[in-house]
Amino acid sequence: MATRSTRTAPAAKAVAPPQPIEPMLAKLVDALPPEGDVLFEPKWDGFRAIVFRPAPGEIAIQSRDLRPLDRYFPELDDALVERLPDGVVVDGEIVVVGARGLDFDALQQRLHPAASRVAKLAIETPASFVAFDLLAERGKSLVDRPQHERRARLEALLADARPPLYLTPATLDGDVATRWLREFEGAGLDGVIAKPLDAPYQPGKRAMLKIKHARTADCVVAGFRWHKSTEEGSAEAIGSLLLGLYDDAGVLHHVGVTSSFTMAVRRDLARELAPLRANALRDHPWRHWAEQAGEQTAQRVPGATSRWSAGKDLAWQPLRAERVCEVKYDHLQGDRFRHATTFVRWRPDKAPEACRYDQLEVVAPYELKEIFGR
Questions:
Q1: pTM here?
Q2: Angle formed at CA 43 by CA 40 and CA 48, multiple of 5 degrees
Q3: CB 53 within 8 A of CB 89
């Protein structure tokens, strides 16, 4: 990509950024910004990670929440020690590639407490690291340097990069970014990131923009969880609504939640939905979920534990599956919404049985190797 080399910036600091360092974040916007002063990159759907390569034979991989990731990805430790020079700090994303593109489910499975299981998964579902920013080089910090300079240095550093280390594509062309937003989802990517060309790296700040796919779906509201403020003697408030979609066999699957409510609305929902709690479990399609928790089942149900939910209160309250709401979502991960959805409106005109998977947009597949090869 074309970069700018005529601008001036403060001299680099004498030392690399401290370890750990908060990653720079992005705020969600509705549309791509105009081209001209921003760098566009694909938004990878993996684990954010910052790699520290301080000295010969040394490597440290830090997660977004400042925790070490090294023990879960031993194959990356070895590869990054070999492929990165001493004194660099690289920001990027850990991903796992499956048969149909990025596989976030397989990536989640890599966070296993047993060392034997970690070693097995490192062979069965090896991870890759996609680099998209350079925070230090030769032991000197680059965080105060502008984005366009950091990108140019990263391109030079990774000109001969080999798997599992990759350099993310980047462009200044708004039309190319628009095409990426449309096409790359078919390989499991999550949208597009826009970075101001003249901006320094700003740890912990939402200094970038992220543009994701925005779609709506009509879902059955089949249950809810109480808000954490709801305690004995306090006013009842809904924390999240549990959403369902029917498959072709008429089975209602738990596909995600919507929880984007003010506290006043949460209390109103508790009163509004109270009548639907009467005899809700008697004929509820998820009434056997407690028996299925921890078992292999084709139907995704609420209350099932995972590594991400360990220690959280997943108790849920059933509702008679009679209400329908419209929600905004970005994309599916398998048969469920990848992220929490945004409540749009109630749909009293829609029958619950009409809330089916076949209403959802089908994304055309895209070869991930075409992205890695750019």
A1: 0.76
A2: 120
A3: yes
Q: Is 200 left (phi over 0), alpha (psi -120 to 50) or beta?
A: beta
Domain 25-212 in CATH 3.55.50.30: no
Amino acid, res. 138: R
Give the ranges where the chain is alpha helix by DSSP (H): 74-83, 104-109, 115-124, 147-157, 174-183, 263-272, 289-292, 368-372
Q: Which is catalytic among the residues 43, 120, 350, 369?
A: 43
For 111-157, how does the pLDDT look when each residue is reduced to its tens digit (9 = 90+)? 999 999 999 999 999 999 999 999 999 999 999 999 999 999 999 99
Please indicate whether residue 43 is annotated as part of the active site.
yes
Residue 243, SS3?
A: strand
Burial letters 215-230, b for 16+ CB under 10 A, else e: ebbbbbbbbbbbbeeb
Tokens 């829609």 sit on residue: 350
* Distance of alpha carbon 177 from alpha carbon 340, whole angstroms: 25
Shortest CA distance to 340 belongs to which of 241, 257, 261? 257
CATH topology of domain 215-359: OB fold (Dihydrolipoamide Acetyltransferase, E2P) (2.40.50)
Enumerate the β-bridge partners of residue 90.
51, 134
